[in-house]
Amino acid sequence: MPPCAYCSLNGCCIHIMEQKFELLRSKIAEAKLGGGQKRIDAQHKKGKLTARERIHFLMDPGSFEEIGALVTHRATDFGMADQQFLGDGVVTGYGTVNGRLVYVFAQDFTVFGGSLSETHAEKICKVMDLAVRNGAPMIGLNDSGGARIQEGVNSLGGYADIFYRNVQASGVIPQISAILGPCAGGAVYSPAMTDFIVMVEGSSYMFVTGPNVVKTVTNEEVSSEELGGASTHASKSGVTHLVATNDVDCIEKVKRLLSYIPQNCEDQAPRLDYTLGDEYRDELMHIIPENANHPYDMKEVIAGIVDTDSFFEIHESYAENIVVGFARLAGRSIGIVANQPMNLAGVLDVNSSKKAARFVRFCDCFNIPLLVLVDVPGFLPGTDQEWNAIITNGSKLLYAFSEATVPRITVITRKAYGGAYDVMNSKHIGADMNYAWPGAEIAVMGAKGASEIIFKHEIDAAADPAAKLAEKEKEYGDTFANPYRAAARGFIDEVILPRETRRKLIKSFAMLENKAVARAKRKHGNVPL
C-alpha cells in the first residue's frame, strides 16, 4: 500500500477510508449505468428514454432519493451468477412532483430487458409498502420483457407479491401506471389493477399472449401494435386511459393527472386559488338545438361550466357516447360524467356503463365531487347489447352512483328517459342536488313512442292517423316532456337557465363540502362484476 498523502504512513486509517469512499462512488456510478452505455444507446435509438431519464422528467429537480441501488439478483442457474448488474433492472425510490410526495419504480430495459426477478420484485414491493404507510401516490414506469425465465417460480412469486399489494393499496392511495415499452404476460395484471394506465403510441404494448402464441393457437396473423398497442387499448378494449406521443409526453400526462387527485383516501384534492366573479355564462344559452333530435357537443357544455382549459378527459377514444374526466370549478377539483349526444345520441351501452362506473368509483375512493350532465335517451337496444350483458354492465354504473358518498350534483340538459334517467345520478339513488334546464324532457320515453302506445286505438281509428299521432304527441309532450312534473315531486331541486349553471354549481359544491354519510356495517358490497 503506498504511503498516505496525509501523514506518510502505510495503511493510514484516513487512506483506507478514502478507498472505501471511492469504492462506494464507483458502485453508485456503475448502478447509474444500468446495463451499460451500449444498451443505453440502443434504448435511445428506439426513441425511448432510460429508467433514470424518465424519473428525471417526472420528479422535481433534485428531489429524487433512490432506494436499493446496490441490490443484485440471487440466481445462479443458467450462468446467471456471472451476470450481475447493480439495481437488478429497476430503479426505485421517492421524491416530489410539484412539491407533493410520490413513490416510483422505473423498470430498466437495459438490464435483462427489464425482466422481473425475485429481487426486482422485492424492490418494487418495498416502495409500494412505503407508499401505503405514508399515504402517497405510487407511480409505476413499466418497460419490461416479463418474468425472468431463468428464475422460474421465484419470478412468478414476485409478480404475485406485487399483485397482492396493488389490491391492498386500491382505494387507499392513487396508483398510476405508465407503459413505456413492452408489458406482456403476467406483467399486465399489475397495471390493470391500478387506477390509471398511460400508454405511448408506437413504442408500448400490452397483451396476455403475444402475436407468436396467437398465431400458433388460433392461426391469426397480428402485429404487436394491432394486438395490444396504445391505439387498440385506447379505442377497442378500454384498457388504457390516456395515450401519449412519446415518453416525455407520457410523463407530463401523469403529472397533470396527479394535479387533480389527492395524496390518499383521507386527503382532499389540491385546490387552486380562485376569485369569484358573477360566474354567469351566456354562451350556454345557445348550445341546445331547438330540434330535440339534433345532436350537440356536450364538451361545449363542459367548457362553459368549468374553469378555463381545466377539463382533462379520461378514456377519450373509448365508448365515446359518454364523456368522463377531471376539471376544476372555482379552483376545486371535480369529476365529470356526461352523456355525449354527438355519439349514438348519448345512449348508455355496455362499454359506456363500464367506463363511467370505473371513473365514478375512483372519484368516490378519493373524495373528488361528481358533476353529472345528463342527455340520455335510454339504453341501447339490440341482441349485441343483451348478449354482452347490458343488464349486468348497466348495473355497474347504477351501483357505482348509489354507493358513492362524495358530493353529487346532476344537471339534466335535455333528455332523461326511462331507466337511464334513474341510473344517471337521479335523486332517487342519492344525488345531493338535481338541476334541469328549461328544455329538459324527463319521461319514461320520448313523446312519439309513448303516444303510439298510450293512444294506439285512437290513432288507428282516426281518419288521419298521422295527424292524430301528431296531436297526441304534442299532448303527451306538453304533459310529461318537461322538467316541471319532476320538479313538482321534488325529484328536480330547481329548474335553471343554462347561463346560471356554473354559478349554481359553485355554490352547491361549496354547500356540500362537509357532506358525511353513515353506511350500514358490512365487509363490502357485491358489485355486479
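the 2nd protein, sequnce then structure:
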Amino acid sequence: MPQTPHQYTHLREALQNLRLTIGAYLDNKSADVDHKDVIKELYSRTEMTGSYMAALIFANMIALLGLLSNSVAVVIGAMLISPLMGPIFSLGLSFAMGNLILARNAGRLIAISVLVTVAAAAFFTVLSPLKEVTAEILARTRPNIYDLLVAIFAGAIGAIALCTRKNYLFTTTGIAIATAVIPPLSVVGYGIGTLQLGMAMGGFLLFFTNLVAIVISSDIVFMLLRFRSSMVEGSKYPLRFRFKILGVTLAVISIPLIATLVTDLRALKLSKRIEQTLRSNLNVEGHSRLTGFSVNREEAVIRVLASVNTVGGIDAITEKRLNKELSSGSNRPINLELEQIIVKAGTIKPPETSLAKKILTTTPSAPKESLTTLRGRTLPLIKDACQEAGVFLAPWPVRGCAVTFSDGTTPTVLQLTIGRDFPLSDQEQRWLTLAVGKKLGEDVMLKTETSRLLPDLIIGDDGVPDDQGKKALAILKEFTNQKPPLQVTVSYPGGGRKAKAGQLKKAGMLRQYLVKDLGVPSGSIMLRPNGNAYRVTVGNVK
C-alpha cells in the first residue's frame, strides 16, 4: 500500500530527528577526545626507530618458532609484542583526515615492515631443521570473509579505545590476538623458505585482509569522532578519492574471501551429508555400528574411508548401494572404502585367560613342556602379528618387532621399529592396533618408534650414488603411486658459497637420478642445505 504525503512527512521527520540525535551524541563524545594528542601519538607511530625494528624482528622470530613447533601460547606471545598495529592505525587516521604526509609515512613503514618480516622468516626457515607443516601454519593459509569481519570489529574497538583512553591497555591486547598481523607474515616467510608459494600467498592474503579491515573500521571511527581535514597542515587528498581507494580494495579482497568461505561451507555440508548417510545405513541394531570416517577431497574422486564394527559383515551389494547413494548428491564421484571389523554380537566379555596363558597352560595329566616346545608354539603367533603389521604399514619397512604377552592383568604389547621419517598418525595407530589385535585374538597395546628410512649417501661427481646407496634408494619406487603423494627432501652439505654451489649442483643431479631412474615425481622433490652429508628423507604432505 503506497504511503500518503502525510505519512511520508512523518517518516522524514523521524529520520531527521534520529540523525540529529546521533549527531548530538557523537558531538558530545568527540568533545571528550583530545584530537591533538591522538594525532601526535599516531604520527610518532610512523617513525622507524631501532627499538621498533628490534621489536618487529623479535616478534616475528617468536611467531615463527611457535608456528614451527605448533605452540599456540608462543604464537599468542608474538602477537602481543608486535609493534605493527601502530602504523596500521596511523594509516586509518590518514584516510579519515585526508593527510597525505601521514599516509605516506605509515604506508612506507608498513611496506618496509612487511619486507623485513618476510625476509627474516624465510631466512630463518631455510636454516631451521624444523620445516614440517603444522596445524598453526595451516590455520593461517585459508582466510575467509569471517576473518575480514573479525578484523573490522577489532579495528573499530581499537580506534575507540585509542581515542577515549578507556581500557586501552586491555583492549589493544585483545585486538593484537584477534587480528594477528605478525603470524600471517611469518607464514609467508615460511612458504617462501620452503618453496610452497601457495601457502605463502594464503598467509599474505590473511595479513592483507586484516590490514584493510583495520584501516577501514578505524577510519570510520575516526571520522565519527570528528577527525577532520581542517586539522591537517599541508598535503591533502579529497574524501571521494579516499572512499574510492578503500571501496575498491575492500571489493577486491572480498572476492577470494567469499570464495573460500563458500568452498569451506560446501565441504562442511558434504561431510555432514556423508556422515548422515553412513550412520543411517551402517548403524543397524544388533548388526553393525559406524565407529569413524574420514573424507579426502584432494583428488578428482572424493575418497571416504569408513570404519565399522559388524557382526556378520557388510556384503558387496550393500556397499555398492551405499557408494551410489553417497555419489548421488555430489557433483564429484565418491569412492567408499569400508574398514570392517568383525565383532561378537551382544556384550563382549573379556576373555577368562590371556593369550599368553593359553599358550603356557597345560593339563595336569600332560607332561611339562620344554622351553623348546614353548618357543615353537609362541614364535608363529609373534610372526603372525609382525607380518600383519608389515602388511598394514607397507611400503614402510618394519625393522624391529617384538611381542610381550599379557599375564591377564595387562594387555599384550606389540613393539615396532619402523623405517619412516615421520611418526604414525593417531588414525594409523588405531587401525594398526585393531588389525593386530584381531590377528592375535585379544586386546593389544601398540608401542612404535621410527628410524631413518634411508642412510646417508655417498654421491659421485656425476650425481649418482654408489652401489650401496642405489640399493637403499630402490625402496622409493614403491612410493611413486602413493596417494596422497609424499614429499621427498634431498639434503646436501652446506659450507662456503663456492663449496655450497658445488654441493647444490650434485644435489640437483641426484634429483634427476630420483626422477629418471626411480620414477619419483619431480614436483614432490625439494632441495635444501642441511648438515654435512647427502640425505634423502620422505615426509607426508598435510
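Residues 347-366, 368-376 have pLDDT under 50 and may be disordered. The first strand starts at residue 288 and ends at 296.
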